[in-house]
Design a protein that fits this description.
Length: about 240
């Protein structure tokens, strides 16, 4: 299956199929500077598939092996990518979206405008995008500097403008009533744990907030725990 966004750019993706399960799909999306082939994305997809959940991991345009420029990648553009993916898998009856880091913000904004997502899961999900922009990159000159001093990930003005314009996903999701699981590491210093608390306090549907003690933004050493929490949530709501 080939997926292209509205700009004609191919979206790289991989399926972890489960025999006999055709009416449900889990879509797993990465965060800033990531892609579908990061170790956590692959391992978590394998774990969920082994638990009986067909899983599709994706690379947003401009990331990994997807087409497009990294410097064009923004939350708003990645939301359009997700809509294109939902268009392609429209035969699936129920879809759960799992967004890691910035992928959490992408999912939040997409779910606010597209009712094809049935269940939401945020893994260290970004909520206050303007705060993130200023905290992480406020001292970097856009279109000249780099994200976390990595020359492979230049910081673009488009990216910073989008983060600041969105400001926070709360106005978009305040009326959403989707079942929503929020998982965050207690030691996360990239997307602060308070982001999940802030979102949880504004959600009106079924919701659960879990703090994974002793782990950082990458959830290192706790991926099995993540999969367990997600499995329990999906068994209840998907």
């Amino acid at each position: 299956m080939q997926i292209r966004n509205k700009h004609g750019e191919k979206i790289d993706h991989a399926f972890h199929d489960v025999d006999g399960v055709n009416d449900k799909l889990v879509i797993l999306a990465h965060g800033v500077t990531g892609d579908k082939d990061r170790e956590m994305m692959v391992e978590l997809s394998n774990m969920l598939a082994n638990m009986g959940w067909p899983t599709m991991r994706i690379s947003f345009s401009g990331c990994g092996n997807s087409e497009g420029k990294f410097t064009d990648a923004t939350i708003s553009k990645e939301s359009d990518d997700l809509v294109a993916i939902l268009d392609q898998v429209k035969g699936t009856k129920k879809i759960a979206y799992i967004g890691y880091s910035m992928g959490g913000a992408v999912g939040a904004l997409t779910a606010a405008k597209d009712d094809r997502i049935s269940v939401m899961v945020s893994l260290a999900g970004m909520v206050r995008t303007k705060v993130f922009a200023e905290t992480e990159f406020g001292d970097v000159v856009p279109d000249e500097g780099y994200m976390w001093e990595d020359e492979e990930t230049p910081l673009s003005q488009k990216f910073m403008d989008d983060l600041r314009q969105i400001d926070t996903v709360i106005p978009a999701v305040k009326d959403i009533r989707l079942p929503w699981l929020l998982l965050h590491g207690s030691e996360d210093d990239v997307v602060l744990p308070d982001d999940s608390v802030h979102l949880f306090n504004h959600l009106k549907g079924k919701k659960k907030h879990v703090v994974i003690e002793g782990t950082d933004h990458s959830f290192a050493g706790h991926w099995e725990a993540l999969a367990g929490h997600i499995d329990e949530w999906l068994k209840t709501y998907l």
